[in-house]
Every structure is written in structure tokens, then in C-alpha cells.
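TL;DR need C-alpha cells for one chain.
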Amino acid sequence: MKVKLIKDPIHGYIELNEHEVRIIDTAAFQRLRRIIQLPLAYLVYPGARHSRFDHSLGSFHLAKEFATHLGLEEYRRRVLTVAALLHDVGHTPYSHLLEAILLENGITHEDMSIRIIKEETELASAIESYDIRIRDVVDVLEKRLPESAVITGPMDVDKMDFLVRDSYFTGAMYGMIDTRRIIRLSAFVEGRLAVNIRGLGAIEEMAIARLQSFLNIYFHHATRGAQQLLLNAARQLSEELDFPRMTVEEYLEHDDISVWSLLKRNEKTREVIKRLERRILPKRVYETRLIGGKAPAKLLSDKELQQSIAASIASRAGLPRELVWIDTPYVPPLPMEAPSAVIFFSEEDGERRIVNVSSPFLQQVSEIYNIVRVYTDSREREKVAQASAEIFGQPQL
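>> reply
TL;DR here they are.
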């Protein structure tokens, strides 16, 4: 079978057979070239312009390595690698940023990926031409099979690729993890994907890289400020960008380019795009970080409460409400308990058995890491900072 090679800066040459190329050549998959992996992060890290297309190819490559090492039979290998290739095909424009519009309606980008795989004719035809049943790809993505953990799990190919890839393109260098060691020390034990206890150091390394990447790349204060501008602008065009109620065909018509153009043409949102084009960003004047359950859950999830607190801060600072807003990003915990935790096994005399592992590093990063920030467009930054401290307490960094 004819093989195509794609040169990837992270994994080297990625091999694709003609059936895989046909899937990649579909309009639904090519759209991922026009969806940036880290929305607006290039305003902080100029090199961070890589796309969901790049990441999907990387995830596919790692899934192929997993399938080979785990000894999956041919059909299961094909299903797993195609699932990895398509796991992000349902992303909104600007990736997780505008996914917030889906999440507010109880829909995730994973749900959209499955819907597109089922309903988009060209893509479904390409999958079936590989002699793969659509239902089997969906079962992997819906976590119904043991190998689903390769795609969505505590040590999945999604994390392994984006941590290394995002580190490379930002230059931040937090995501240097030993993906090959994790893969080579993995096995199915008692029907679950587990890693040999000899790989504990590599797993700890990945967990720390994940935490540092969230804090220093994904949640960089300037990037988050820019993202809030774009998200608020998109919400003003709720009819034009009503992703949850679009047909698959309508949804796939939207990418970063179309959304940017739409926002730039509309009178209500044009000024936001001009600000982003000139990198005129809101300023962070207050930040506190809280580990575990110290941050009130309602504050993190209730947008109306956040707006009410922002209004109180603005009032104390003697400013209009629209000059102050709150951001509450949080690092999701690394699962430490079954069935979502990393599972370890030991091997003696050819016998593998699940073992409990105690790791202070993994325990520490298993807690939710909350951040509360206050931004303002006002020149009266000291007043906003003081008012924020009166409400939230002195900043803890």
C-alpha cells in the first residue's frame, strides 16, 4: 500500500497510508488547519500559531505507536488510530475558547466530533472505505472500550502530544516529557490500560509538565485577557454564532478566519478586533491562587455572581461597571482515584498485577488549582487592585 510521509517538528516523519490520507483530505479534517491550537497565545508567545490539524496528526502518530506496542490486532489498530486522528474534528473555531458557547448548552467538542463522524457524508465515506465501521470509531471516542484510554485518559495521546507540541511552539519548555517511555511501559492489565511501576518518574514528569503548562501557557494573564475580549465579542453575535443549534454543514463552515472576519465586519464587535490587532489588552491588577477547595465553587461557575462582584469592585473604585471584569480559570485535577486515575502494574516472572503507588508529586497535583483575577481597562489600576483586595483578600501568588 502506498505510504505518504508528513514531516512533523515534534515526531519526525508521520506515515499515512492511502486510506488515512483520504480521511485527512476531507473538508471536515482540512478545516482543522484553520483552527488555532492556542487561541491568541501568539500575542504572548509569537511562535504559538500551530493548529488543531498539527495536533491531530501528532495524536494519530502516538496512537499508532501505542497500538503497535500493545499488540492490537489489525482492525482494532485501524479503529484506534482513526479515532485519534478525528478526536478533535468537532472543535469550535478558536478551540476551547469558543467551546464555552457549546458548553453553556451542555455540549462538548467531543460531542460535536462524534456528530460530525456520524453525519458528515464525505468523512463517513472515507472512514468506511478503510473497511472501518463508524460505530466502532464512536465506541472508542465514547470510552466504551479498553483502548479508549489511549484517546481519553490520564496518560492519553491527546495530552502527550499537546504538552510537547505547545511547549515547542511557545518556546516555554514546560512540556518536555518522555512519551516513548510511557508508551513502551504500558500494557493492558485486567482489561485496563496501565503503566509499569518503572514508569512512575515519567508519569510524575508529565503531571508536573501539565500543571506548569496550564499556569504559564494556557492561563497566562495576557492571553486570558485577550481571550476574554474575543469571547465577549462572540457572545454579542449570538444569532450568527449559535454553534449549538447549527446543522453539521453550517458548523463546518466556521473556522477562525470566518469568525474573525464576522467580528471585524460587525459594528458591535469591530472595535474589539481593532484592539486585538494592535495588542491593546486589559490589564491584570489582582490575582490570587487557591489550591484545593479553598475557592468558593459558586464563584468559579456562576457568571452572574462574577458580574455582581465585578460591579462591586467598580463601585468601590469609583469606575463604570464595564471597566472591570473577573476571570476564574482553574487547572482541572489529575485523577487519583479509579476509574480515571493512572493505573500502575508490577511484573514478576512474567506475571503482571495491579499495584497501589504512593507518589507525593501526583498527590500534590491532584488537587484543583484555582486562579481568581481581576482585569481593568481603567488608568485607575491601583484603586481597582485595592477594591479587589478588600473583597477577595490580599493576593496569594
